[in-house]
Amino acid sequence: MSKKNLKDIPRIKLGHFPTPIEHLKNISEYLGGPQIYIKRDDCTGLATGGNKVRKLEFLMADAVNQKAELVVTIGAVQSNHARQTAAAATLLGIKCLIILEHRIDSPPEEYLNSGNVFLDRVFEAQIEHCPKDRDVKEYAAERVEEIKKEGTNVYFIPGGGSNKIGALGYVECINEIIHDPQGIQFDHIIHGTGSSGTQAGLLAGRKYFNYNVPITGISVRFKKDIQEEKVFTEAKSTCEFLGCDVLDRSEVVAFDDYVGPGYGLPTDAMIEATKLLAKKEAILLDPVYSGKGFAGFMDLISKNYFKKTDKVLFIHTGGAVSLFAYEWAFKGKLVS
To answer: Is pTM beyond 0.90 here?
Structure first.
């Protein structure tokens, strides 16, 4: 199969690209490790920004081509992906149904109604909650079939926009990094990894553009072997779809030491990382992905995972709007 031209694949402009790459001088000096840079995918524009906008540019183009009347997607209660999908759908005049999964036991009221959930409602998405005794993927599949039987043309987007079409957004991100006008030669790229589409796209992008920089994921949900296998499967599928060389399993690296008690559950390290980046660089992380991702990054620096001379790019996947839903986690840990 011949290699596809990424520019020929249908895409709808939803975000502000390319996103900037900034040198974190203060925190690089403070940590005394490598030179740290940040790719500001929190500045993608749509609905306060975030990494899912990259994926949605390809996914929503596919939905439009299939003449979708309703987009259905799934996510945790404070899903950044759900918020961005709702925004993209309303922009394109397509209805949106979000099926939310409860992953935190007995959360406070602000978690259930502020942050991303509040914005889901602002964008007039229909919200349903998956029953606690049901698998959200199975429940969503049943709901999609029920709605289709009613005569509605439904387009389903998996959690995080993570499939071979959504991953194309991060194949394109590698192209942005390569052609950034600053011309920085990075030694490592690191980010928080969860639904796997971002890391899979970055790894497929390495193959597509022959860009041999290691990609390290900090898992925010699954154990190392599960997360790496999820990423590998999706990256392989993306490579096959693009017709480029397929990556080797050994190229997939994800650390699971920073998940804490579970997905979306705060950790002290996440809180400290979020506070530190705010204090040193005036950049806001999110409690679920980038906060734990940067906490893991800091720990790897302390363990000399990187050389002091390395230039390391941290991809900020966005989601700071969910901080408003996590005020309870920061109580007693901020200056009064």
So the answer is: yes
